[in-house]
Amino acid sequence: MKKLCVIPGDGIGPEVVPVAVEAIKLLVPDLEVVHAQAGWACFQQTGCAVPERTLDLMRECGAGLFGAVQSPAHQVAGYRSAILTLRQQLGLSVNLRPVRSWPFISPKSGIDLMVLRENSEGLYVGREHMASPDKAIAERHISRQASELLAQRTAQVAQLRQARRITLVHKANVLPLTCGLFRDSCRAVLEAQGLGSVLDERLVDVAALQLIEQPESFDLVVTTNLFGDVLSDLASYWSGGLATAPSLNWGQGIALAEPVHGSAPDIAGSGRANPIAALLSAALLLRYHWELDDQASRLEGAVDDFLKESKGVDLGAQTTLRVSAGVLERIK
Ligand code: NAI
Ligand code: MG
């Protein structure tokens, strides 16, 4: 029996997550669902953004679905973004972020790429300090171990989707120690796995330009935490924007699916939240973590059919409801 820990979070999280849970229930009939709390509202109520109980439930289930959290733009004593805590505490060290063309809503057809982002270190270790009142310093951590783990997952994904190209993205010309270690560690693993012939490299600035100029030329894009965060949001333009961008935080025997978007306070409660990113995140959990490829394809196929038939019309205040009904009906 599969167990799923559901963490809706803040803003539109609680609006889009139940749709994805319904989809998984249809595809995995013996699913057991448990609910847990995390985020800004949780912090305000309990003083803790990710309660111990949430971490325990996640570990017990081995699989989760997360909505989004709101984070204040200024520092709040004791608060750290819930999703960063979850990723670090649960060892969710790789983040898969696929981007593909969808009918009517994508600005261009023929795109099918995936950003594989290191998810536990880089600049996101969150070690900042003021060296003086006029100078702030952030540390960037890169380890051989985390880079190798990312490369091993990349090899696994490459095999599953018969990757034609794997692009390591870094900035080793300016950051030879951190980016150099990242590049060399990834390269060694991928070459040892027989993937040397499809492997290439790009500096991150050139990669950003080429993701705009020739997105269809990319397949797997493998990079560090901050670069992956930025490049995957940028690339999501090609799938139809953040409302369609899914992700999977992937650890050892544990995974947390999560739409790339945030809590979208500007539309929360208006019915406009599009659940497609959450639905496609559920498909990633099915395919990569539970290895239920057929079920993942059925879910993606239902999204594809729905988009074809609705011709990408703006559903306004009916978005959550209509997309939900349309996709779930096509799974049944
Ligand atoms: P956002 O992703 O929440 O919203 C950006 C824009 O995209 C907004 O105009 C929003 O209405 C739209 N949008 C996002 N998801 C949508 C959906 N499913 N359907 C329709 N429209 C959608 O990013 P923003 O505004 O920069 O951040 C808002 C809050 O979310 C902040 O507190 C931020 O810290 C947090 N955040 C959390 C993330 C997470 O939980 N992983 C990721 C990014 C931001
Ligand atoms: Mg982001």
Automatic annotation (TrEMBL):
<protein>
    <submittedName>
        <fullName>Isocitrate/isopropylmalate dehydrogenase family protein</fullName>
    </submittedName>
</protein>
<dbReference type="Pfam" id="PF00180">
    <property type="entry name" value="Iso_dh"/>
</dbReference>
<feature type="domain" description="Isopropylmalate dehydrogenase-like">
    <location>
        <begin position="3"/>
        <end position="331"/>
    </location>
</feature>
<dbReference type="InterPro" id="IPR024084">
    <property type="entry name" value="IsoPropMal-DH-like_dom"/>
</dbReference>
<comment type="similarity">
    <text>Belongs to the isocitrate and isopropylmalate dehydrogenases family.</text>
</comment>
<keyword id="KW-0560">Oxidoreductase</keyword>
